[in-house]
Write a structure and sequence with these properties.
The chain has helices spanning 12-23, 35-42, 53-63, 98-110, 127-138, 158-163, 175-198, 217-220, 226-257, 261-268, 290-303, 309-331, 357-367, 380-387, 397-402, 414-417, 441-445, and strands spanning 5-8, 28-31, 66-69, 80-83, 114-119, 143-148, 168-172, 221-224, 338-342, 371-375, 392-393, 406-409, 431-434. It is of the alpha/beta class and 446 residues long. The chain is built from 17 helices and 13 strands. Helices cover 45% and strands 13% of the residues. It has 3 domains: 5-224, Rossmann fold (3-Layer(aba) Sandwich); 235-319, Orthogonal Bundle (N-(1-d-carboxylethyl)-l-norvaline Dehydrogenase, domain 2); 332-445, NAD(P)-binding Rossmann-like Domain (Rossmann fold), CATH 3.40.50.720. It binds nicotinamide-adenine-dinucleotide (NAD). Residues 8-14, 31-34, 37, 84-87, 99, 102-103, 121-122, 151, 153, 155, 288-289 line the site of nicotinamide-adenine-dinucleotide.
């Protein structure tokens, strides 16, 4: 008999993980306190856009392996709990662990006997210890086997990353519990092999290397202690954010000197010690992870009395990019102060606009008195919570381009990269500011 799974938090991580685990044959309860999200999932859909996810959710609901609910009763019969709730940043940059401890509280009050408690959310190093202590103080009869299993999925290729994960980090103290968690992902891996041979292309739509399913399962499984696993996750994100900020810093040097930054990083990235990934300058990083993971690690380090200057500078460099692009727009501002913005999500392949630099740019330009027309293939609904009626929402990117003197590419969606510039009526268009370096200058100017 397979273990009974409960996933708490039906967001980007939890819904994707639960749908995949349910597809691999596990009875998977999915709990969220947000009734709206649970109602949508019950109807066999995802409440956000992610390639291939709707199909997985539907098959989970149809097979009755995926059981969405707002009730916590299933904790009574749960063998393995995956905690996937949010860990947003507080105003001072530190991680807000309120949701994390709400889950711990439910476990302490509802679960009985023994439970394997897996933390998938990104938490500061040391959190696992605190959770174990907290639960023990509320329910000393409950045996909690705590495992840190940080999630590495990227929005935009979340399903792909969950199925074809390139590493599985399992941090714990109890070898049996760690093996049971490993078994769940081994089953996912086995299911993925069959599924891969079925060739469902849409799951890999936005994956950067869809043909590469990586190392064999055993070689990509890393078993370490809880604290190391906690630190692996935030270190990975902080380093990637650092790379982007560094690329942006160099891009400013290139701008002032006539160097072509794309050519520079193409050459720099050929050095295998460095590699090309994440050396893409542009409007900067955003989303639900990088900003809070960088500030959370900075804060955690400072609380330990350490100097976290490098990460602070990366954050500042990132923040400066929206101003840098806004100043460019202002410097070429047409008399009518109208501007078209292509892209609102924080990156392509997702409808997520949390801490999106594109949204920050729109807000900045609105503040400066611009009339802003926006386009995005997926993010209008979520962007409306941020921008309301302050902008014009245009479904057709071509109309945005043709009806403005200035257009900014703020998110590198494929549809913008694939624009056939030879078919654009240029009677109005004067400037295309490609803030993602995703189009070919020659094509745009032709
Ligand atoms: N989004 C990503 O790309 C990504 C990638 C890797 C890791 N992570 C980490 O995973 C965690 C979750 O991120 P996310 O993007 O899925 O967040 P999210 O905000 O999309 O989802 C979190 C969900 O938890 C629910 N929730 C909050 N408190 C709850 C409670 N007490 N009981 C039940 N449900 C509750 C919320 O309603 C929400 O639906 C975070 O720690 C994040 O840093 C995210």
């Amino acid at each position: 008999m397979k273990d009974v799974i409960t996933v708490v938090g039906a967001g980007y991580v939890g819904l994707t993980a639960a749908s995949v685990i349910a597809s691999a044959g596990y009875k998977t309860n999915l709990i969220d306190v947000d009734e709206r999200k649970i109602e949508i999932i019950k109807r066999g859909r995802s409440h956000f856009f992610e390639a291939g996810l709707d199909k997985l959710v539907k098959s989970g609901i149809d097979s009755e392996n995926l059981i969405p609910t707002t009730e916590f009763d299933s904790l009574k019969e749960t063998d393995i709990l995956f905690s996937c709730v949010g860990t947003p940043d507080r105003e001072d940059g530190s991680s807000n662990l309120d949701y994390i401890f709400q889950v711990a509280d439910k476990v302490a009050h509802i679960s009985s006997g023994e439970i394997i408690y897996v933390q998938k959310s990104t938490v500061p190093v040391g959190t696992g210890k605190k959770i174990k202590k907290y639960i023990a103080s509320k329910n000393s009869d409950l045996k909690v086997k705590y495992v840190s299993n940080p999630e590495f999925l990227r929005e935009g290729s979340a399903v792909y990353d969950t199925i074809f994960f390139d590493r599985l980090v399992i941090g714990g103290e109890d070898l049996e519990a760690m093996s049971k968690v490993e078994k769940v992902f081994k089953d996912v891996d086995e299911w993925a092999k069959k599924y891969e041979s079925n060739g469902y292309g849409d799951y890999v739509l936005y994956a950067s290397h869809p043909d590469d399913s990586g190392l064999p399962f055993e070689e990509k499984t890393i078993k370490i202690n809880i604290e190391s696993a906690e630190l692996v996750k935030v270190t990975s994100n902080a380093f990637l954010a650092l790379k982007i900020s560094f690329a942006n810093n160099i891009a400013k040097v290139a701008d002032k000197t006539g160097a072509n930054v794309k050519e520079v990083f193409d050459a720099v990235g050929m050095d295998r010690r460095i590699n090309r990934s994440f050396l893409y300058p542009g409007l900067g990083w955003g989303g639900g992870c990088f900003p809070k993971d960088v500030s959370g690690l900075t804060k955690a380090g400072e609380e330990l009395g350490l100097n976290m200057k490098i990460l602070k500078e990366a954050y500042e460099e990132n923040r400066s990019m929206v101003d840098y692009v806004a100043d460019r727009v202002i410097s070429i501002s047409p008399k009518n102060k109208e501007v078209g913005i292509l892209g609102l999500s924080f990156k392509p392949g997702t409808s997520d606009v949390r801490k999106s630099p594109a949204i920050a740019l729109v807000k900045k330009l609105l503040d400066k008195g611009f009339k802003v027309t926006v386009n995005d293939p997926e993010a209008f609904e979520e962007a409306k919570h941020e921008l309301g009626e302050s902008v014009i929402y245009e479904d057709d990117p071509k109309k945005v381009i043709e009806n403005h003197e200035i257009v900014v590419i703020a998110t590198d969606w494929k549809v913008y990269k694939d624009t056939d510039w030879s078919k654009i009526n240029r009677s109005k268009l004067k400037y295309v500011l490609d803030a993602r370096n995703c189009s070919d200058k020659k094509d745009v100017e032709s």
